[in-house]
Structure formats: C-alpha cells, structure tokens
Amino acid sequence: MARCGRRRPPLPGGLTHRLGCDSIYLCAARGRIRRALFLALCGILVASSLDAVADVVEVVAVKLERSGDGSWNIHTTLRHADTGWDHYADAWRVVDPDGRVVATRTLYHPHVDEQPFTRGLSGVRIPADVRTVRVEARDTVHGWSPRSVRVDLGKDRGDRFEISN
User: Fold this and answer.
1) Could you write out the DSSP letters of every residue in 101-117?
2) How many other CB atoms are found less than 10 A from the CB of residue 63?
3) Average pLDDT in the 21-30 region?
C-alpha cells in the first residue's frame, strides 16, 4: 500500500498497525463502512419482517351482545389482504385467559373484494367466572395472527371492542 508521506499520530500504547502507519485511517473507514452495512442489513430485516406481519389477518373490531339466556352473540370485523383460495382469512375464535378455545367461527371462502368484513357467531357460552377473552383470527398462510383483541367483559367498551346488553 502506498503511503502519502504525511505523519499520523501513533496508536495508543505504542502499538503499530500491521499494515503501516496510515492504514489505521483506512481501518477506521472500513469499520465505519462495516457498521453502515450492518445497520442497513438490520433495517432490511426489520422492514421485511414488518411486511410479513402486514400480510396477517387483523381483528379490527368486536361487538358483543348478551342474550337473554346468558349466551353471547359476537360480531367480529376482520381485515386481510385476501388474494383468493390460496391466501385468505379463514377463521376467528374466542379464547379464555387460560388459552381454552370458547368458540370458533369458520370462514369458508375468501373476501377479496369485501374488506374489511364482519361475520357473527351466536349462542357463544362464556363461563361466568371468565372476566376477559381474546378474539383471534387466522389466515391460510400465516396461521393465528398476533393482531388480536382483548375484551374485558366487565366494561361497556374498550380498545376495538364494544359490549351491549
């Protein structure tokens, strides 16, 4: 490697760099380039993981109505970029805090041109001692989505849910 002839400050502790006196500056530049490449790669990975999450089904809203017999009628609004039979939102379910499935509503066909869409399920029996449930949705490619709604059965409304008697 050619040297320009300028004097550079010595390395700390009297150390010398294996490539010569001016290579410490090249080495520092390489370090900055490596850091920039690492950060760019991290950004790409984060962006691609967000794109993957963007394709999962989202529970947009849940409306619950208590029936006279103590059961619940549940209307769930979902949003998903259905593309056809190969990739569509195919179910939603109600899960208690212990992870037990209380009820499941199967969706039998894609809703490509109907987004978001709402489907209901009547006669859902939620045990009296259960105070909260989670409404989750599934699509045929990604499975059960992390974009669910937690419903506090002791409140009239909350984040993306509403209860009427």
Assistant:
1) EEEEEE--S--TTS-SE
2) 16
3) 54
Q: Hunting for tokens 């550079």 — which residue is that?
A: 8
User: Is cis: bond before 116, omega within 30 of 0?
Assistant: yes
Q: Cα separation of 154 and 152, whole Å?
A: 5
pTM above 0.85, yes or no: no
pLDDT digits (tens, 9 = 90+) for 94-110: 999 999 999 999 999 99
Residues in the chain: 165
Planar angle of CA 118, 145, 160, nearest 5 degrees: 50
d(CA 138, CA 49): 18
Tens of pLDDT, residue by residue over 56-79, are 999 999 999 999 999 999 999 999
Q: What is the DSSP string of 36-97?
A: HHHHHHHHHHHHHHHHHHHTS-EEEEEEEEE-TTS-EEEEEEEE----BTTB-EEEEEEE-T
- Helix, strand, or coil (residue 22): coil
- Give the chain's mean pLDDT: 82
For 41, list phi and psi in degrees, rounded to 5: -65, -40
Structural element, H or E, at residue 120: strand 117-124
State both tokens at 83.
Answer: 């593309």
101 beta partners: 95
